Automatic annotation (TrEMBL):
GO terms for biological process: phosphorelay signal transduction system; regulation of DNA-templated transcription. The modification 4-aspartylphosphate is found at D54. The keyword Glycosyltransferase does not apply. This is LuxR family two component transcriptional regulator. It holds the Pfam family Response_reg.
């Protein structure tokens, strides 16, 4: 029997997900929580085989990636992220934190069941869309912004001038311009505005 604990801040979604999981053979929902904090508190005194975890829980609340990091650090159960967020930043943050799998909420029931069984067994469980994103990053690293390029472009998106970005990051103005030029090229953008728009579309600022 695979014992599953759920954490999602939307009551209707949480209840529907619990009902769906309960229909799967040899899978039981042993706990439901509306926040990552409640889940972590429950795990201090209880155990399960898998945590099915949303990624975002609202402003000011602990997010799924950080909760996953804490669960992994405590040698807790496997974590399967189930979310609507499909950006590279969100996926990488969750996997880097120790999640065994990453699935989108529009996944078919059969795919969810396979992912639950795989993640509970300690195996990777990634949706096809997530796999495609990861493969793209590996095969075409030239289109992936470096952390510094992302940081500079994010500040530009916040409305800072090149001089203000340079002062904020303790860089020279020429270095800032170089980072921006590299970002424009990687994003296939001809201008600052276009680069920022493309970065937002790809979820690079998430």
């Amino acid at each position: 029997m695979i014992r599953v604990a759920l954490a999602d801040d939307h009551p209707v979604v949480r209840a529907g997900l619990a009902s769906l999981v309960e229909t799967m053979p040899d899978v039981a929902v042993v706990a439901q929580h509306g926040s990552a904090e409640d889940l972590l508190a429950w795990l201090e005194d209880h155990s399960c085989d898998l945590v099915l975890l949303d990624l975002q829980f609202g402003e000011g609340r602990l997010n799924g990636a950080e909760a996953t990091r804490r669960i992994s650090a405590a040698s807790g159960p496997s974590v399967l992220i189930l979310t609507t967020y499909a950006t590279d930043a969100a996926i990488l943050a969750a996997l880097d934190a120790g999640a065994r799998g990453y699935l989108l909420k529009d996944a078919p029931t059969e795919e969810l069941e396979r992912a639950i069984r795989a993640a509970a067994a300690g195996q990777p469980a990634l949706s096809a869309a997530v796999q495609q994103r990861l493969v793209r990053r590996v095969l075409d690293p030239a289109t992936t912004l470096t952390p510094r390029e992302t940081e500079v472009l994010r500040l530009a998106a916040d409305g800072l001038s090149n001089d203000e970005i340079a002062a904020s990051l303790y860089l020279s103005r020429a270095t800032v311009k170089t980072h921006l030029a590299h970002a424009y090229a990687k994003l296939g953008a001809a201008s600052r505005t276009a680069a920022i728009a493309t970065a937002r579309e790809r979820g690079l600022f998430s």
